[in-house]
Structure formats: structure tokens, C-alpha cells
Amino acid sequence: MNRWVEITFDCLPLRSVVRLDIPLDASPKFEAFCERVKAALDKHGKFNSFYLYNGRCTYHLTNREDVGTIQYRFEGTVLTDEEDLHTVRCDLDIGLLRETCSWLSEPIVEWLGETVLRSVSVEFDRYIEAGDLEKTRRRIEQLQAAADQSGGFIGMYL
Prior knowledge:
By secondary structure, the protein is α+β, with helices and mostly antiparallel strands.
């Protein structure tokens, strides 16, 4: 552990979503995820918007994992500038996931919950700087080219 804040997430660029229908055999959990992505598309559009899921933000208040750790889960949309170079704002659903902090109080839980927005914004800028967003963009372009060459079909729900 060499960071004050640990953040992990999976990223779905909303411009990569080409189909909005939900598979008939989708699990209830996957169906709910699809509905949340569709709601993000309706609210924020496809461009300069990225859906983060499986997000975890962990704050370490001490140097021991079993004392003073507060972890939040998050999911939602990050909006970037026109060039996808900087985070403009985050629209996230945030909730306390676990904690090992016996002195934690509700106002601190709420304050750190709000701080998750700022932490994710900083981390998404680091994600962009690391080139992960560019790799994702290239992969989407390759998938789109493959879909165009095959008449729009490259596999189930891709």
C-alpha cells in the first residue's frame, strides 16, 4: 500500500454502446446494469461520457489494513472535456461498502462520500494520462471497423 487513496473501476465509454436492447436471457443483475447504462445515455449522451462500474474507493486513515480503512463503492458517469483530456464532472451513485474504523461517525461517512467524487475525478485524469482511455478508444475503433466489414454483426451483443 503506497497510496493514500486506492481507486479501482471498470470503464465503459458510452460512445461504444451500439445496442440498447437487453438480452432475453439476461440475469436480473445484468439487466439492472443495462438499465443503468441506458439511463446514463439518456441523461448524458454518448460523447465525452464514460460509465464507471465495479468502482471502489478506499481511504486509509492508518498504516494498518485492519484499522482505519473506509471503503466506498461507486458507479456512474464521468464527463470529460471535448478532447477527452480532463474530467469535467462526475455523476456517481456512492455508498459505504465496508469500514474498519471504530471511531467513524455519520458526518464523516457523508463527508468522505462526497470526497469520493473529487477522488474519482483526479483518478480518471490519471487514467487518461496513463493512456488507458486511448487504448480503449483504439479498441472501440477496431470493433466498429470489424462490425462495419461484417455488415454490423461481430458477435452476440458486441
